[in-house]
Every structure is written in C-alpha cells, then in structure tokens.
Amino acid sequence: MSSQSDHIPAEPNAEPTGKATKAAPSWLRGTLVAMLAAAFVGAAVGFVGFLSQLRGAESRPAQTADGIVVLTGGSSRVSDAMELLAAGFGKRLLISGVHPTNDVSDISRSLPDNNQALLGCCVDLDRSAVNTRSNAAETRRWAHERGFKSLIVVTSNYHMPRAIVEMSHAMPDIALIPFAVVGDKWRDEPWWTSGATLRLLLSEYVKYVAVEMRVRLADAGLDLVSEGADLPTGSLAPRRGATAQAN
Question: What is the C-alpha separation between 156 and 143, in angstroms, rounded?
Fold first, then answer.
C-alpha cells in the first residue's frame, strides 16, 4: 500500500523568510522634504541678509568716540586703527588679541613713522583675548576702567556683524561705532568668484548665527555657555608678526 506525503497548505498571511523593509509613509517623506526645503531657504535668506551687512568700501566714521578698539586677525586692521587714532577719532586705542610673545616694538615695525609716537602715549595692548567673545570681555574691562562711553570698533568687514553682536551684548551701556576694514582681495574680485572667500563667508555666517542664538538665549536667561568656557585651550597661534590670529 503506497503512502502519500502530507501537504500542509501555507498560511495566507505568513511572512516570508528574511527581513522585509517597510517604506516610510508618503506623508512622512513629504514632511521631511518640506522641512529640509524650508531649512535650506531659511539659511539662504539668512546668508543674503548677512552679506547685506558687509561693507564693500571703507568710509571714515561719521563721529568721534572716547576710544578705539581693533580686533587682531586680519591684514591692515591695526594700521587702519592707528590712522583713526592719529586723526583724532578717539583718545586712546586698545589692540585686542595681541600674541603674548609680541610687544610694542613688534607692532611698530608695521607702522609708518608718523604713528610711532602714538604707541608710547595712547595705545594699550590686550594679550588675553583669543577669540571674539574674549575680545568683547577685555574691551569691556578696558572701557569701564577708563570711563569710556563710546568706542569705534575696527575689524574686517566680514567679521564686523559677529563682533558687534558680541560687543553689544558685553557692553550694552557703551555706544559702538563700526569701522569695517575691506581687504584688497575683497576689492579686487567679487566674493562669489573665489572659492576661498566663499568658504570664509560661509564659515563666518555659521559663527554669526551661533552667536546670535547664544546671545538671544542669554538675554532670555538661558546662558548655557559661561564666558570662560568659550576660550579654546591652546588656540593661541604661533608668533606671526605683531598680533595673534584671533578672528
């Protein structure tokens, strides 16, 4: 008598062997795409707004101030600040972010002879600051010690928006007058034709947005990063001319 093999019918809803990948619902994909598109558009609009703040040509301040502060890190910043001091736009100049190994003689070598005498009488050096936030803290201390109520701030045009945010937050009681230094490369070619300049602007824009967010949170009572914690360890550059590359 022949035997027949038992045949067990497969369950209609049985899962196949192996792992099945479930596709995300179409509404979730659409939401993610919309969020990414909105973030991209927002960043692009913000970048355009940032660029609109950058001056393309230098112009002397419309008024004088009690003091002048120059933030080191860019070409011709110190010499431009010294020219403003010589022209009587301020009583005294603070050079913030000078490398600890540099002294007045290192700075004097980069200045014309007619500005040499001012170094001995009317210029102070800050060797403590290593970034824009500490520039603002040291400038506040210097201005308050001297009773200054107004300052001309000298830095590069691309760095000015972030510097003003930091200094306005640190010194709300002091009037700030920006003097933006425009480098030769900025004047010689449009920024969008230079990859290096575009990368610099994008990097500065990201830093500017981060500072704006931190300052707004601090104004709301959420100071998540203390002033001292913002100082990077070992960030001082090796000796390069008269100043440290702080910004």
Answer: 21
Phi and psi at residue 91, in whole multiples of 5°?
-80, -30
Domain boundaries, the chain: 67-230
The pLDDT score that the predictor gives to residue 229 is 46
Q: How far is CA 239 from CA 25, 72, 78, 125, 244, in A?
A: 58, 13, 16, 16, 7
Burial class (CB in 10 A: 0-12, 13-18, 19+), 246: buried
Could you read off the pLDDT of 190-199 as tens digits, one per residue? 888 888 889 9
Q: What number of other Cβ atoms are within 10 A of residue 98's Cβ?
A: 24
Give the pTM.
0.77
- pLDDT (tens digit per residue) in 118-133: 888 899 999 999 999 9
Q: Other C-beta atoms within 10 Å of 117: how many? A: 10
| pLDDT of amino acid 187 | 77
Residue 90 pLDDT: 96
* CATH annotation of 67-230: 3.40.50
